[in-house]
Amino acid sequence: MRLKTKYFIKWKGLKYAKRIAIAIIAILLIVVLVKHKGDISKFKINQNYIGIIGVLCGSAVTGIITYFNTSKAYSRDAKRKEMESRKKEIFAPLYNNMLKVNNYMVSESYPEGLYHEIKYKDEVNSFSEWESIKKDNRSLYISNLLSQQLDQFTQKINEYMEYREKLTKEVIRVTEIQVGSYSGSKYIVDRIGLFYKFSQARQLLKDKDKFIQGICALNLNDTSATDSQRIPLPNPVAEKIYQESIESSQAVEFENIFNDLVNKSNDILVVLKFIINDIDKQIYGKVQY
Q1: Which of 68, 155, 203, 228 is placed for a possible disulfide with 210 were both Cys, Cβ 3.0 to 4.6 Å?
Q2: CA–CA gap between residue 247 and residue 209 (Å, rounded)
Q3: Exposure pattern of 253-283 as b/e (b: 16+ CB <10 Å)?
Q4: What is the 3-state secondary structure (H, E, C) of the chain?
Q5: Closest by alpha carbon to 13, among 76, 56, 77, 61?
Q6: Count of other CB atoms within 10 angstroms of residue 12
Q7: How far apart are CA 99 and CA 269, in angstroms?
Q8: pTM, rounded to two decimals
Q9: Domain boundaries, the chain
């Protein structure tokens, strides 16, 4: 298959050259027949005719081959520039942006925020390159399969941000129930919804000890509490809060969404790496990654 592709232009050029040569000979023959009124018996071979035919055929063959070889070189150069442009303006930016977000998710584990809107393009936790590409004709060079993967990834970011709030509210709900009968707990029940944030709730999935310490110190960390209200929750109460929260459907779903985000980003990185390496191999004969 590769051999046929390599010599197709050359073979095609020779085919047309042969046709033109035959056409020239036919035209000259018609001229001779007209000149001798169709009586070919009166025709005498003239060496000048043979020379003229040879020159014309040779020029035609040389011209056709030169034309097709030049066209082939121009086409190859144009294709190379087009591939370089696609890599530089589409696939390399997508890869670098996805790699940055992937590294951030792995290092942070349940980060406080993930975004894909263009207004967050300078943030380390933002995958905004895809939104930017979709706004112009660069999106036309993205395959349907890759486009679907990228859209699914950004949709999963939206789910992550939505369930981030659900997880926080669930921890607050469980805490309010568990500390309801504890002495001095009314202050916590009344105010936990005001100051308890996702930055604390995410420790539920990141670090059990930190989560329990945070629950025990809820009153201690509230500067608006009085001295009598700053009573630490006992460890057994915090343990119950942890156990009920970690088994909640919100925690399970949130963990699944985050893991799915990481897996999807890994899959997309593999695809983008393959595309970039394929372009580099065609242009430079070697791969980048």
Answers
A1: 203
A2: 16
A3: ebbebbeebeebbeebbebbbebbeebbeee
A4: CHHHHHHHHHHHHHHHHHHHHHHHHHHHHHHHHHHCCCCHHHCCCCHHHHHHHHHHHHHHHHHHHHHHHHHHHHHHHHHHHHHHHHHHHHHHHHHHHHHHHHHHHHHHCCCCCCECCHHHCCCCCECCHHHHHHCCHHHHHCCHHHHHHHHHHHHHHHHHHHHHHHHHHHHHHHHHHHCCCCCCCHHHHHHHHHHCCHHHHCHHHHCHHHHHHHHHCCCCCCCCCCCCCCCCCCHHHHHHHHHHHHCCHHHHHHHHHHHHHHHHHHHHHHHHHHHHHHHHHHHHCCCCC
A5: 61
A6: 13
A7: 7
A8: 0.72
A9: 2-78, 118-284
- For 276, residues 6+ apart whose C-beta sits below 8 A from its C-beta are 87, 91, 92, 95, 288, 289
Hey, which residues does 126 pair with through a beta bridge? 115
